[in-house]
Amino acid sequence: MSNNIEKKSIQEKLFLPSFTSCVSHRFKCIYCPYSSDVSTNVKNHILTHTKERKFKCLYCEMKFTLKHHLKNMSLQSMMFIHEK
Length: 84
Hints:
Layout: H1 2-14, E1 18-19, E2 25-28, E3 35-36, H2 39-50, E4 55-56, E5 63-64, H3 67-83
Antiparallel strand pairs: 1-2, 2-3, 4-5
């Protein structure tokens, strides 16, 4: 249970906006100077640091950080198989 609480608190810290002006806010990476106005961009960027790969191919051992990377690889593989 403490692990879930710890994980949640880290996630909350990651995505709190940092107000640099009255109009805009930025989300910042905790590992490097990267920041963005879009929280999803920062979440995806953080995966480059954590090396977390949630999306696994059903046919081989490859894993991907983002779902669309898995989808692209699967489509390319299907095209290659059908060309033969």
